[in-house]
Amino acid sequence: MKLNIDTNIECLGTYAERYVPNGYYEPMEIDKRLETMSKIEGLTGLFTYYPTGPLPSDPDNLVKKLSNFNLKVSNVCVVGWNDKKWKHGAYSTNEKEIRKQAIKLFKEGIDFAKATKAGSVLLWAAHDGFDYSFQVNYKKGWENLKESIKEIGEYDRNVKIAVEYKCKDPRQKAYISNVGKEMMLLNDVGLANVGGVIDVGHALMAQENLAESCVILDSHNKLFQIHINDNYKDADPDLMIGAISFWEILEFMYYLNKTDYEGWLAIDVESPRDDRIRSLEVGVKLIRKYKELADKLTKYSEEIEKNLEGYHFADNMNLIMDKIFK
Predict the structure, then answer these.
(1) Which residues pair with 122 in a beta bridge?
(2) For residues 35 and 136, what is the distance between their CA atoms, to the nearest angstrom?
(3) Which residues are 162's β-sheet partners?
């Protein structure tokens, strides 16, 4: 695994929410955010939203602007959730015109990603799901979702489309709610350029084992993106990586380290009650530290694997503690 770290512009945002609509911070100018990011060792990419909002909408101008701060577009995220028209789902809704608009927007995002040389384009079906029994037709919903994503993937098979899962929020039940359903969907879509995402917070909230989810996607050549944060497995507040789930994330990084993944590890963290700049700095440092720990363990992978073969958990824990707690 090659370590590349990026983040999005909102990690230095105001963190406005329904409880504090005006945010926890005063707005930071875009150039100040980019300058701050450029000074953090190991942070080299910007996970860019499309439409781009406060950033330049012209791809060439955006690339030039980011290069002035020693940054580049890492991946692109098409925003198909921030308008009331998406409330019944952007990709699964029965409203054909709404699906058509969502697909058109995504294709524009693909063109933008190609122009900025982004690694992949994120598809998060935020509102595609349900809240009550007898609210949606599941068969039609899944069929619409599959056909929408298939059309998006076929638009340019040289561009990677990364589909993200999340068990709930904003809907109470999301269609693409866990890694298993995601793999089912990817299999039904059947395109090599349409893959999946491990969002650490989403996987934890779905009560998944991070390392297992990583193996599932990687073994099918579907590990396209990784988003980094943490939580208590009951919600997705985008807490700092490793602050809660140390062992799960260490195991995840150990298994990730054994893959050929060369994409980005995207910091997706909010720090409304702490210094947002310092939090981003520490987040990058934590990822690099976890990579160092994974490198140490990888040197002893033969012994670790031998213990796994015999289900010798205690022996592995003893070995790991001896190597990383010095």
Answers:
(1) 77, 162
(2) 46
(3) 122, 195
Cα–Cα distance between 243 and 283 in angstroms, integer? 10
Length of the chain: 326
From start to end of the chain, where are the E strands? Answer: 5-8, 43-50, 72-78, 121-124, 129-130, 161-164, 173-174, 194-199, 223-228, 265-267
Give the contacts of 9 (CB within 8 A, at least 6 positions apart): 30, 33, 46, 48, 49, 53, 54, 55
Report yes or no on whether pTM surpasses 0.85.
Answer: yes
pLDDT by residue, tens only, the chain of 326 residues: 999 999 999 999 999 999 999 999 999 999 999 999 999 999 999 999 999 999 999 999 999 999 999 999 999 999 999 999 999 999 999 999 999 999 999 999 999 999 999 999 999 999 999 999 999 999 999 999 999 999 999 999 999 999 999 999 999 999 999 999 999 999 999 999 999 999 999 999 999 999 999 999 999 999 999 999 999 999 999 999 999 999 999 999 999 999 999 999 999 999 999 999 999 999 999 999 999 999 999 999 999 999 999 999 999 999 999 999 97
Both tokens of 300, joined, read 């002893």
Asked if 256 contacts 243 with a C-beta cutoff of 8 angstroms, the reply is no
Other C-beta atoms closer than 10 Å to the C-beta of 96 total 9
Could you tell me the domains of the chain? 5-291 (3.20.20.150)
**Which phi and psi (to 5°) does residue 241 adopt?**
-60, 135
Q: Among 11, 95, 7, which residue's Cα sits nearest to residue 45? A: 7
Q: What is the spatial distance between Cα 4 and Cα 188, in angstroms, rounded to a whole number?
A: 30
